[in-house]
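Provenance and format

Records in this collection were gathered into a single text stream. Each protein contributes a sequence line and a token line. The two records reproduced below are adjacent in the stream.
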Amino acid sequence: MRIMNEILEFNKDFVEHKEYEKYKTTKFPDKRLVILSCMDTRLSDMLQRALNLRNGDAKIIKNAGGMLTHPFGGIMRSIIVAIYELNANEVCIIGHHGCGMGSINPVNTIEKMKANGVQREVLSTLEYSGVDLERWLHGFDNVEESVRGSVDIVRNHPLIPKNIPVHGLVIDPETGKLDLVVDGYQALEQA
């Protein structure tokens, strides 16, 4: 069976048996928290359980590496919307040990693009337009430094209220152990 057919078949049963009722919540995060973390499949359930979060407790944003790469990109926009429109009043940036973005090889990724039919002309056009694919695809060398960098982008963003604590953590995707990298409360006290 194809994956989408399997999903739709399951979904029909899910709705018919009202399985959704146990997940009901509002669009506002109960713990008034917004989290940026990695899309790693090991964190799908582990992250929420390790943080003692239930459905509806936090707004969770995921991307490759759990990192902010642009202060006016989609991730930052989502954090700002969570604060101003959804009542979040704390931000957590959570990286993880063994992250694929810590070992990604942009040159190999570009070669895979070519092998999958992306034309050299497309890559040349991007390069001519100022897009440095190798730089754009590069992850990070150190997960703690990556978390600190993302925390700094949020904390120093001109649209983020100065009273919002921005925390940085690293999670072990095997055990769920959290290491505090940046204490957002302490940073506010020192400001």
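Adjacent record:
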Amino acid sequence: MVTPGGLVVLTDRRSAAGPLVQVVAAAIRGGAAWVILRERDLGYAERTALAAQLRPLLPPGRLIVAGPDPLGGSAVHLSAADPVPAGVPLVGRSWHGTEPLSDVDYVTLSPVYLTATKPGYGPALGPAGAAELVNRVPRSPAGGGTAVGRIPWLALGGVDSAARAAECAEAGAEGIAVLGAIMRAANPARVASELAGAFAAAKRRVAGRDPAARDLEGAL
């Protein structure tokens, strides 16, 4: 199972600087590798139609739907209260250090930095704090069994600069989950390129220093 990595864009049509599909398409042109469709206040038909518009913009399986219904796709991102749906190959969860990890493939951790999208939401974990939180909790495969190492995590919240993107990569994040910096950008393709490029460059530096990371990268 391929899990999200690199630049992951979260949608928010209310804060988008232009039509949502156009903003997302520009971010993908700039280097976004995955998209999490939020918009949970929309009706089922509207949300399904929006998913159908976004899905062709990405490689197969790269559109993740927030909530337990994948809307005809194969990936969901759950809140702490959402039940795990049956038969969905890729399941992520918003994690805060207490929820069980045996039923998901990746988590988002937030806020890594303070964020304008959710003023007052914090305190900020910082990249090192987020990594420490993940590393304290062993991950078990679905259905129980032996722990299989730390779960892949995405840094969410306030990742709005190349420097911050690089810090998250250095801390071990598999990707950066970005909402405001992309949605509100006058040029979402350029912002996506800056964030995705900085994150990827930092991951390469980390792999160059870590023989185990080089071996893993070669196996993928």
